[in-house]
Every structure is written in C-alpha cells, then in structure tokens.
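Exercise 7. Given the encoded structure of a 431-residue chain, write a plausible sequence.
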C-alpha cells in the first residue's frame, strides 16, 4: 500500500509538473489556457518581481518552456536564424543553434514559437527553412527549406510566421505553393509523409482540433486577395485526407488560429476589417456539413479569442481603429455571447493594442501590445474587473505609442515570459 501511495504521489507530482510547462505556441493544448493556480491577483506598489531580463535581437518570436529549458527563436537581420536555449530560472544562456538566412521580411525579426518535444525542438525560419534540432547533441537532425523541396512554394507577404505543429510522429508544415498547400513530414527524419493540394497562403498556424471524436488539422487561408476568396480546410493527420473545406470566411491576411467553441461550433476571426464568423459544423454519413451561423464586423487582428463560460473574449483591435482616438472606443477587450451579441467592451479604457493574452487561474493575463503593460483581470458576462496592472517593461515607455509588443507570452511554474521586441522578461506571478 505504501509503495502504491508513493507511486501515486510521484505520478501526481510529475503530471502537475508537466502541466506547468508551455511546450509550444499557445501552450499545452494550443489554446492559450493553463491549468496553473495560486497566481497573484494583485501587485505590490512597485509591481510584480522581474526575476530576470535578457537582451534579444528585434523580433516577435515567443517562448516555449519545458522544465528548466526555455527556448526562443531569434534572428540577426539578413544574416541568420537562431534557436536559443536559456535556463528558465535564471535567464542564463545554455546553448544556441544557428542557421544562415537571406533577406529580411517587412517588420524585421523572428516570428515563430518553437515546438518542444522530449528529444527535439522544431521551428520555422522567416523564409521557410524548417529545423529539427536534437536536444542532446544541440545540432540539427535535419533542416529543409520548403522552397527547395517544393519549388512552387511561395513565401507569404510578411514571411513564414507559422509555428510547427507536431502530432505523434509527424510535423506539419506549410509550403503554400501553387501545387502544395501543407505537408506532413516524419519528425525524426524529415521525410515527407503526405502533402495536400494548394490552399493559397496564410500567416495563421495550423492547429489540431478534436471534432465529433475525430482529430482535425485546421487552417485558415486566403486564396486570391483580388477575388476575396478565403478557405478553412481540415485535414486528417494520419494521411492528409481533406475532411472538409469551406469558403464561408475570407480575411485578406489571416493570422489568428481557428478556435473551437464546442463540438458543433467553430469561431474564426481576424483584422483588416474582415470581421469574424461563427460556423456550425455537423458530422454526417458522407462527411461534414459546415455552415455560417452568424457574422460580426469586429475581429482580433493577431491573437485568437478565448471561450470562457460560454462567452467569447478577444481584443477587437486592428489597424483601422488603433490610430484614431474616436475609433479606439470601438475596440479594447470585448465580450460576446454565442449568438453574436456584444455584451460589453473596454474601448479605450484600457485599449491594450494587439497584445497577447493567456487564461489561467480564473484570470485573463494580458500584455499590452502598444506599451507592454501587464494586466490581470477577471471577466464575465457582466464586465471586466481589473485586478492588477504594472509597466513591467519600464514607465519610460508609457509615453510612446505602438512598440509592437505582439509576441505570444508563455506561463510555466508561476513565471510569465514576456517578449517586447528586443527584450525578454521573466515575471514572477507567485510571490
């Protein structure tokens, strides 16, 4: 009995530790949600403790955390892409992997969040070179440029921003060519497992959703901007079979991932005044039926929404409303019911730009996309209750306008990892 209790305790502790990690874009389940608890709900006058800070090159790449290893993608403009491994507790660099890279996309710097597995780390460079880096040897097992494997591949307007999706033994990548849309490679060898037909291009990442008991790789893309044709496509992971495809949503520059609301509802959003749509999905004998349930004019330009207690929450901030004071009142954090009715919005108080958010311990944790301000808040159908706010990147930034602090955050072990272009902060949310 004692042995069984001991094993149960060890298993429980190991499971809790594993759940605390943030091994990929948008966290353990790729939905921006953490199971952590016991986090701060207020800050001291001087703000939360900044455990460490380190300098990076200019960029947008966010962090992934596995145990004491923190991985971040960085880039020296026009020269090289880098995977940097830091000690998550101290910020000290442990090792780095580098790969030469040509050119520089608009809005210079890294884009991707690395995807971490026990044996390897995967990331995609701005010009489509996919890397599998062995954690033991700290060298590439393989690296493949998508345009070399698929000559029809075309780099999206602002570079490849996709985060590699690893499912079991495959890694899903996005050539976005005239003949090949997405593809799956063996994650150990880099050999192709399957490929799809063309889907246009996108700045959104493929995501894995379970719908009607079946796994779906779902991607939103734009086929032809001139004709305003968009696609949302679902692929079966094991063989790439198209499970369903719909033209119900168009965004000229898709960025946020598709959000699963329920087994019968999907929400797709974006900026550039293309709005958002709720789609109904139903499994039938001959496949899936996808229809539009409702649409709204507002959308979230960069980051996906959250589904909390049967309500949608997102920052309704995009190019068209963040520069004009009167239009900013139409944005901020907004709350919607599942019938498409807006219940409230924070407007310009606070606006929060196009920053990222996490949901943990019953709170939204928000990084202001314009100034980096860290905010904690509770949300409900009744409104937004601010719990705490701090200028963690420095009060001297508060008078500047849009610093493009758009990187996804990571949360692990009570510590929040926040990137502000060329700075990476580790903030303690437990003390």
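Solution.
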């Amino acid at each position: 009995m004692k042995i069984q209790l001991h094993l149960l305790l060890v298993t429980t502790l190991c499971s809790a530790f594993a759940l605390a990690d943030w091994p990929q874009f948008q966290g353990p389940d790729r939905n921006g949600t953490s199971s952590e608890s016991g986090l701060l709900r207020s800050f001291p006058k001087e703000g939360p403790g900044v455990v460490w800070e380190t300098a990076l090159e200019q960029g947008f790449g966010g962090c992934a955390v596995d145990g004491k290893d923190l991985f971040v993608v960085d880039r020296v403009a026009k020269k090289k892409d880098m995977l940097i491994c830091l000690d998550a507790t101290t910020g000290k660099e442990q090792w780095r992997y580098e790969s030469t890279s040509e050119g520089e996309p608009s809005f210079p710097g890294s884009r991707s969040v690395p995807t971490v597995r026990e044996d390897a780390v995967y990331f995609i460079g701005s010009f489509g070179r996919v890397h599998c880096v062995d954690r033991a040897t700290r060298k590439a097992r393989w690296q493949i440029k998508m345009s070399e494997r698929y000559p029809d591949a075309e780099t999206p307007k602002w570079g490849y921003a996709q985060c590699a999706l690893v499912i079991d033994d495959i890694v899903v990548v996005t050539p976005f060519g005239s003949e090949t849309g997405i593809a799956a490679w063996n994650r150990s060898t880099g050999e192709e497992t399957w490929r799809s037909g063309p889907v246009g291009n996108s700045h959104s990442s493929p995501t894995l959703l379970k719908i009607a008991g079946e796994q779906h790789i779902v991607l939103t893309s734009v086929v032809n901007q001139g004709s305003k044709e968009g696609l949302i496509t679902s692929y079966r992971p094991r063989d790439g079979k198209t499970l369903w495809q719909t033209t119900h949503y168009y965004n000229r520059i898709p960025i946020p991932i598709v959000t699963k609301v329920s087994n019968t509802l999907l929400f797709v959003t974006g900026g550039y005044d293309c709005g958002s749509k709720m789609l109904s999905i139903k499994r039938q004998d001959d496949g899936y039926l996808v229809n539009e349930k409702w649409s709204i004019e507002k959308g979230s330009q960069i980051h996906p929404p959250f589904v909390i207690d049967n309500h949608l929450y997102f920052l309704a901030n995009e190019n068209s409303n963040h520069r004009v004071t009167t239009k900013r009142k139409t944005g901020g954090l907004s709350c919607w019911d599942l019938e498409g009715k807006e219940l409230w919005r924070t407007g310009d108080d606070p606006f929060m730009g196009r920053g990222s958010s996490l949901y943990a311990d019953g709170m939204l944790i928000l990084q202001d996309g314009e100034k980096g301000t860290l905010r904690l808040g509770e949300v409900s159908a009744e409104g937004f209750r601010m719990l705490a706010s701090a200028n963690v990147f420095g009060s001297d930034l508060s008078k500047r306008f849009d610093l493009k602090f758009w990187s996804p955050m990571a949360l692990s072990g009570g510590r929040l990892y926040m990137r502000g272009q060329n700075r990476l902060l580790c903030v303690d949310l437990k003390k």
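Remark. Residues 300-431 form a domain with the Lipocalin fold (CATH 2.40.128.630). Students should compare their own answers with the one above.
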